Structure formats: structure tokens, C-alpha cells
Design the sequence.
């Protein structure tokens, strides 16, 4: 897998941080099978696509929390199911 494909995956994730999406949708965007995509992304980056997605969502949500918006509102916007799941993600990342 070329780095341009890794860049396309990152581009897709970063453009859809506030949207629910599946590995199959990313694979369709890049033009690979989901299995091959997941395996190659992890081999090259050291993290799974969903770990990368979680990390990017946490970083974006952290920036939003610098505003007057509430924690729950930001958590829901960035596709965390509950306040607890967003807290767990923040602890894992930071």
C-alpha cells in the first residue's frame, strides 16, 4: 500500500470526524478491501484505522472544549456514545 493511500485514509477520517462511518466505507473510498486496508494501515502506522479515528476525534473534541460548549454536547458531536466513552477515550489518548 502506498503512502498516498494512507494519506487518503487520513483525509477521509479527518473530513468525517463528526460522522459515523464504517471500515467498509473507508475501503470503498480508497479502493481496497476492508481486510487488506485494515491490515496494511496497521502495519504501516502501528495503529488500527479505528484507533486513528478515535485519536483524531479526541484531539478535535479537545479543541472544541476550549470554547464554552459542554462536554456532553462535544462528545455527541464527535460520535462518542456516552460521556463515559468520551472520558475513556480521552484517558487512553492523553
Sequence:
Amino acid at each position: 500500500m502506498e503512502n498516498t493511500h494512507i494519506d487518503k485514509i487520513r483525509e477521509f477520517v479527518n473530513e468525517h470526524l463528526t460522522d459515523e462511518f464504517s471500515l467498509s466505507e473507508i475501503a470503498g473510498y480508497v479502493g481496497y478491501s476492508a481486510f487488506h486496508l485494515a491490515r496494511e494501515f496497521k502495519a504501516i502506522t502501528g495503529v488500527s484505522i479505528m484507533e486513528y479515528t478515535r485519536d483524531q476525534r479526541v484531539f478535535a473534541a479537545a479543541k472544541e472544549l476550549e470554547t464554552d460548549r459542554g462536554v456532553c454536547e462535544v462528545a455527541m458531536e464527535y460520535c462518542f456514545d456516552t460521556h463515559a466513552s468520551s472520558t475513556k477515550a480521552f484517558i487512553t489518548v492523553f
